[in-house]
Amino acid sequence: MTALRFVLRGAPDQRLDLSPLTPDGLAGLGLAAIAALPLQTGRHRVTVGDVFHVHPGDVAHIVIEGGSDRFDHVGEAMTSGVLEVEGDAGQQAGRLMAGGMLTIRGSSGGWAASGLRGGRVEILGDAGGFLGGPLSGERTGMRGGIVLVHGKAGARAADRLRRGLVIIEGDAGEHAGSGMVAGTLVVCGAAGALPGILMRRGTIVLGHPAELAPSFVVSGGAPLVFSGLLARAVAPVSEAAAGCVRQATARYAGDTAVSGKGEIFVAG
């Protein structure tokens, strides 16, 4: 069966909350009911039918044809199914997902995959700041799942990562992996200043040398067995990330200003 498709009528003139457009949220609804769903905004009320042409298909596989950086909360709280955005997405794409697959064939705004608990988020373009990070007042960021960004990411990617895997095939902004509690972050490109600052545990792999905080200490080379196992684990998600892991030659322990139980591997 073909996918349920939402074809954008025209560029939106205000920010829209697309969180209702998930396999979970649309299960059991007919086309008329779907078209009548409100998309919460701060200015005036609009419905799905005002923004999209709705074409019938399998609700477990949703395609949004045409994206916008004003499309917020795309895929929020998904637990199953497939959601594809053929274009850009706005803030908090994939927030609180517990399962399923979200693919953005463009770039996304800040806090993509915030609070992710499971499933997979793939961004073919760039990601904004705080990728996988918590919102204000939350104690931890991602708690599971997989995030793959083919482009670059903004500042504080994987901030306070609790569990899961984050791969950035391009560059990352400053403070990547800041405050990590556990989990794995791989940055294949160049990382900005002070990656891993205040991390307590977890693993960061950097494809290029970066400016580390002085509270990280050299602790020998990257163990070949560990590198091989990690490369094998990430290869099904990103061969670029696997190659980055295999090239890691130096290991740093830290952040010793916190507990010193985290580690950063750097490719030579």
Provide structural commentary:
The chain is an alpha/beta fold and 268 residues long. The protein has one domain (61-267): Glutamate synthase, alpha subunit, C-terminal domain (Pectate Lyase C-like, 3 Solenoid). The chain is 12% helix and 29% strand. The chain has a 13-stranded mixed β-sheet with strand order 5-1-6-8-9-10-11-12-13-14-17-16-15. Strands 2-7 form a two-stranded parallel sheet. Helix 4 packs antiparallel against helix 5. The protein is elongated. The model has no long low-confidence stretch (mean pLDDT 95).
User: Strand sequence of the main sheet, in spatial order?
Assistant: 5-1-6-8-9-10-11-12-13-14-17-16-15
Instruction: Fill in the CATH topology.
Output: Pectate Lyase C-like
Question: What would you report as the Rg, rounded to the nearest angstrom?
Answer: 19 Å
The level-1 CATH class: Mainly Beta
| Total helical elements | 5
Which residues form runs of ≥5 with pLDDT under 50? none
Largest sheet: 13 strands, mixed
Helices and strands: which structural class? alpha/beta
Mean pLDDT: 95
Order of helix and strand elements from N to C terminus:
EEHHEEHEEEEEEEEEEEHHEE
Q: How many E-type strands? A: 17
Give the CATH architecture.
3 Solenoid
Number of discrete domains: 1
